[in-house]
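== Polypeptide entry ==
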Amino acid sequence: MNINWEFIINNVPLYQKAAWITLKLAAFGIAASLVIGLLCSIVLYYKAAGLQKAVRVYIELSRNTPLLIQLFFLYYGLTKLGITLSEETCAVLGLSFLGGSYMAEAFRGGIESVSRSQIESGLSIGLSKVQLVRYVILPQAVAMTIPAIGANCIFLLKETSIVGVIAIPDLMHVTQDLIGMYYMTVESLAMLVVSYLILLLPLSVFLTWLERKVRYAEFGN
């Protein structure tokens, strides 16, 4: 098989630009997902009246609809309702909407793993609910949920491959364009794979290191 290296070298800048867009969208989406997930998990834990059902509806709606459909609704559906959002805003909202529900489930699992005796001890020394969450529940819950949160971060980064459907020049969109224009399928797909590996491998290595550090701090081995 002959590889057209000149084609690959000439299009590296195009992939660099697309990789930056992909990374930026993923970073905003993951950050927003963490905030949404944490808030939702706290609402579920305290069974906040009126909000608990709304959070459950959001989680079920988010997890049981494809990101593709969510993006179409944000980009095309809202326009019909008189709300026009940019492509990047729709992508970040879509990733946040999807990721928030997965993060909520991850945080909820961590919060529920905190032993009842520690919570009762916190209450017995006069901690308020906010202080209990801040000083007792969250530090342990976050440590326990690092693996799940890491898996969700990687999942969301990979899900950015769909945002090209709303005309964002991400890695997948650029690859499809190059294949359509030059029929350089092997070269284009090879650059796509390498680009995602460059983005995902450092994140995966960092999360593995973080998980080991947390485990060492918790169990001492």
